[in-house]
Amino acid sequence: MKTVQYREALREAMSEEMRTDSSVFLLGEEVAEYNGAYKVSQGMLDEFGAKRVIDTPIAELGFTGIAVGAAMNGLRPIVEFMTWNFAILAADQIINSAAKMLQMSGGQIGCPIVFRGGNGTAGQLGATHSQSFEAFYAHVPGLKVVTPSTPYDAKGLLKAAIRDNDPVLVLESEKMYGDKGEIPEGEYIIPIGVADIKRKGTDVTVVSFGKIIKEAHKAAEALEKEGISVEIIDLRSVRPIDYGTVVNSVKKTNRCVVVEESWPIASIASEIAYHVQNYAFDYLDAPVKRVMQSDTPFPFSPPLMAEALPNVARIIAAIKATMYK
Amino acid sequence: MAVKKAAPAKTTRKTQASKFSKETYIKWYKDMLMIRRFEEKISQLYIQQKFGGFLHVYIGQEAIAAGTVSACKKGDKHITAYRDHGHPIALGTDPKNLMAELYGKATGCSKGKGGSMHFFDKERGFYGGHGIVGAQIPMGAGIAFAEQYNETGNVCFCSFGDGAARQGALHETFNMAMVWKLPVIFIIENNNYAMGTSVERTTNVTDMSKMGDSYEMPSFVVDGMKPEAVHEAIEEAAERARKGNGPTLLDIRTYRYKGHSMSDPQKYRSKDEVSEWQDKDPIDHVLSVIKEKKYMTQKQIDTVEAETKQTVLDAVKFAEDSPFPDKEELYNDVYQQKDYPYIKEYLA
């Protein structure tokens, strides 16, 4: 094993795949000469050259559409968005083109493409730069959506995404690019659609994904001292969702809390709660709880930010509520 | 020959008809007649409610598909908007499969999953048929990007209407296509109306060939009622692209005789305007050359007409006799992954 940053894990995934498959290339704003706005692609221009590591103008809709066209015609593009907030401008090409091409062409023309970039809040960036898109894109059939929360998951899931023949969205985080973690020396792949039990426990199941799962880990550690055993399931993929792992865990713990860094309506949390009540109703000892971001555009001022985000205290309170404590 | 910034299409320089062979004229005639008869028939069928969805016919614009296809090479790619019946017919897709697609049948060119606006025929280089106005502009450039990446020498012909040219995606794409010298030919099928809104009402720059100027893209006005003019402009642009000199913008002036779709009352234009353009009909034009040059006898011309009509009737019969897709097809072709875990519990 070796210790790498999250950004290095992503870079290793891209570089390894580009070494073995000449149809894979990277494009996006500042990915080449600037070495990546968040240094994810550092050094890749030097290794692969300007043909395969391509700086684009600031034109999300245009360069995403060009990448989609390239994927329709046999290439395997990796599109880096500086953040997913900017990819709203490209949503037409992701939702109307990439997600639907295979179906509308009757299976003739697929779209093997990866869209990746930072997602969610990232400090004091204001409302337009602080949004989470898991539920938005998980809603759309034809897409796959992964949300790695560790360097290990980042590399394994991105490699799976690049090799996948369907369009895959990788939702990363500016706040996680510097996170360190262990990964194997050799190559490995994490299949898309398989959740990971990040912490074993017996009293309550906490379901989460992405950066905010770190708060769930802190809550679980604090509760351990009080004798409460928390099981943490990292969904890792929000389309498809590994419902089986969640439901089996709830059948064991009889309690479920979902922690999500996004708005409440039509969230991944509401989706998980639906499945748990439908498939584990007789096992539940308490209603499913969720800890979400505030139902507002994300604020700028630090005390308001603190008020808006899911945090350890709220997660602990939600867990205890399911235990009637 | 295309002429840079010749203002109205009618003053575009005359092409040399002698350059084109008898075979080319006969192919143009057959292709355009097939498009015309096919669409006349489907317009009737649509009114009879034989199938649903939207229906946008190409009648009047046939010379663009015919002239593009006669000038292209095997391996080139084509992409267009939702007015997409003409290109696959000219490229040789069997009208039976196109008709079946309109009916939503399993034998359709997109297995009944696309409908009128989403014809596809990858084998013949036809990459759709796209319903979102202007979305095919960056996609077309991307298809060309892949050809450049793989150094094939192939080009992509990317067609869109004067309405789609108002999308921001056009400007983003023109910019990148010029920076990267992509082998793409941008074709404005300029029929002067975005649905019911004329070019004059949507822009300060009514000469659409000027849209390439900001990007220093070679741009030309082309007479879209003559397949000769289209062929020459396309051939020249494709040559430029194949040599690595990047994209060309062709503002091809044409006219749709019918409404935007089948539900269009056409109150935005006069009958005189329509008939003025019908006087320049591309099929009449090609037929007059064929007769003048004695490329076909009247008997042969009559035979082509009869065979074309029969092909259309056979296509209707094929479509009506074809099966609808099996229910299981709902879950096929959404993902390449064969065992994708769809949520199906609500169906139980």
TrEMBL record, chain A:
<feature type="domain" description="Transketolase-like pyrimidine-binding">
    <location>
        <begin position="4"/>
        <end position="179"/>
    </location>
</feature>
<keyword id="KW-0786">Thiamine pyrophosphate</keyword>
<keyword id="KW-0560">Oxidoreductase</keyword>
<dbReference type="Pfam" id="PF02780">
    <property type="entry name" value="Transketolase_C"/>
</dbReference>
<dbReference type="InterPro" id="IPR005475">
    <property type="entry name" value="Transketolase-like_Pyr-bd"/>
</dbReference>
<dbReference type="InterPro" id="IPR009014">
    <property type="entry name" value="Transketo_C/PFOR_II"/>
</dbReference>
<dbReference type="GO" id="GO:0016491">
    <property type="term" value="F:oxidoreductase activity"/>
</dbReference>
<dbReference type="Pfam" id="PF02779">
    <property type="entry name" value="Transket_pyr"/>
</dbReference>
<dbReference type="InterPro" id="IPR029061">
    <property type="entry name" value="THDP-binding"/>
</dbReference>
<dbReference type="InterPro" id="IPR033248">
    <property type="entry name" value="Transketolase_C"/>
</dbReference>
<keyword id="KW-0670">Pyruvate</keyword>
<protein>
    <submittedName>
        <fullName>Pyruvate dehydrogenase complex E1 component subunit beta</fullName>
    </submittedName>
</protein>
Automatic annotation (TrEMBL), chain B:
<dbReference type="InterPro" id="IPR029061">
    <property type="entry name" value="THDP-binding"/>
</dbReference>
<keyword id="KW-0560">Oxidoreductase</keyword>
<comment type="subunit">
    <text>Heterodimer of an alpha and a beta chain.</text>
</comment>
<dbReference type="InterPro" id="IPR001017">
    <property type="entry name" value="DH_E1"/>
</dbReference>
<comment type="function">
    <text>The pyruvate dehydrogenase complex catalyzes the overall conversion of pyruvate to acetyl-CoA and CO(2).</text>
</comment>
<dbReference type="GO" id="GO:0006086">
    <property type="term" value="P:pyruvate decarboxylation to acetyl-CoA"/>
</dbReference>
<dbReference type="GO" id="GO:0004739">
    <property type="term" value="F:pyruvate dehydrogenase (acetyl-transferring) activity"/>
</dbReference>
<dbReference type="InterPro" id="IPR017597">
    <property type="entry name" value="Pyrv_DH_E1_asu_subgrp-y"/>
</dbReference>
<protein>
    <recommendedName>
        <fullName>Pyruvate dehydrogenase E1 component subunit alpha</fullName>
        <ecNumber>1.2.4.1</ecNumber>
    </recommendedName>
</protein>
<feature type="domain" description="Dehydrogenase E1 component">
    <location>
        <begin position="31"/>
        <end position="326"/>
    </location>
</feature>
<dbReference type="Pfam" id="PF00676">
    <property type="entry name" value="E1_dh"/>
</dbReference>
<keyword id="KW-0670">Pyruvate</keyword>
<dbReference type="InterPro" id="IPR050642">
    <property type="entry name" value="PDH_E1_Alpha_Subunit"/>
</dbReference>
<keyword id="KW-0786">Thiamine pyrophosphate</keyword>
